[in-house]
Write a structure and sequence with these properties.
- The protein has helices spanning 2-30, 38-56, 59-83, 88-106, 132-136, 141-159, 161-171, 173-178, 183-209, 221-231, 236-258, 265-269, 271-284, 287-293.
- The protein has 306 residues and is mainly alpha-helical.
- It has a single domain (2-293), classed as ABC transporter involved in vitamin B12 uptake, BtuC, CATH 1.10.3470.
- The longest helix has 29 residues, at 2-30.
Length: 306
């Protein structure tokens, strides 16, 4: 039971990265914008978060830097696709390539840098409980913030006027424009908010999840986060559950290796990506289900007055 509790606890930690990034991408896609640049934004934010934490000794400052970098890159992407009407998919891929190359170049001086000693975030008394302690109460506060963020996003999207406007822009930007809503500005704000969350996820990777900096350290998590939004059919609660599922698959490989399971390490390493492909294949078997939940204008440009 103790081993299972540790595995579940590690899965929650690993799933937090995917959940935060996926929630950001969900905000983007609810407004009708597809951003394939998540991987690049996360890499640049991971570098920024790590560098600022090393220089200042503050984890919060590192998270703030990651969010700022993510929002900035997303803002550039937003201007290109919303005002200049560049292709969303090509621009997103370009952002990923830029982020991977720029972070590798700019991060050479931080490869051997050391973060300050981390604080003990275990909850007194609760962390000592058998099974539940290591499973639920020995995590970084960002794990709990992620859960709160999920429920906050559910409330925002389905219980507030601003959330209704955002969803209406994603469903029918022409109708929202006819009612007087600034569709382009709403989409830009949604893209930047999503970019900030992707940046937070990237900073969490380098500051907490794997406290170091190496080139390409997000290792495809941005792409898995993109797949998760479809897997969750654009529902925040399903995003959280899906992220924990993929986190479980990711951590299972290490626990199997530690247990001496005689399986090639290459097979275990590819398990998260194989799970992503399998899930997408299963979902694609029911295109009607996806079509019902998918924002109607997703990936489509909007031209005011046309």
């Amino acid at each position: 039971m103790e081993s299972i509790a540790l595995l579940i606890g590690a899965s929650l930690n690993a799933g937090t990265v995917l959940a935060i990034a996926s929630l950001g991408l969900l905000i983007n896609e609810k407004s009708g914008i597809v951003n394939l640049g998540a991987e690049g934004m996360m890499l640049c934010a991971a570098l920024a978060g790590f560098a600022v934490t090393v220089k200042t000794g503050s984890t919060l400052a590192g998270f703030g830097a990651g969010m700022a970098v993510g929002a900035l890159l997303a803002g550039v992407f937003g201007v290109l696709v919303i005002w200049l009407n560049t292709n969303q998919y090509a621009t997103g891929l370009a952002l990923t390539l830029f982020g991977a190359g720029f972070s590798a170049f700019a991060g050479t001086g931080f490869v051997k840098a050391q973060l300050p000693a981390s604080l003990d975030y275990t909850l007194p008394v609760l962390s000592d409980l058998p099974v539940l302690g290591p499973m639920l109460f020995r995590h970084h506060p960002m794990v709990y913030v992620c859960v709160a963020l999920t429920f906050g996003l559910i409330w925002f999207l389905y219980r507030t006027r601003a959330g209704l406007v955002l969803r209406s822009v994603g469903e029918s930007p022409e109708s929202a424009h006819a009612l007087g809503y600034p569709v382009r500005r709403i989409r830009l704000m949604a893209v930047m908010a999503g970019g900030a969350l992707c940046g937070l996820a990237g900073a969490y990777v380098s500051v907490v999840y794997t406290p170091l900096w190496v080139e390409g350290m997000t290792a495809g998590k941005g792409w898995i986060a993109l797949a998760l939004t479809t897997f969750a059919t654009w529902r925040p609660a399903r995003v959280l559950l899906g992220a924990y599922l993929f986190g479980f698959v990711t951590m299972l490989q290490f626990h199997l290796q530690g247990a001496g399971v005689n399986v090639p390490s290459q097979f275990l390493t590819m398990m998260p990506y194989l799970a992503t492909i399998v899930v997408l294949v299963l979902i694609s078997r029911n295109p009607t289900w996806i079509r019902i939940n998918m924002p109607s204008s997703i990936g489509k440009p909007f031209y005011p007055g046309s």
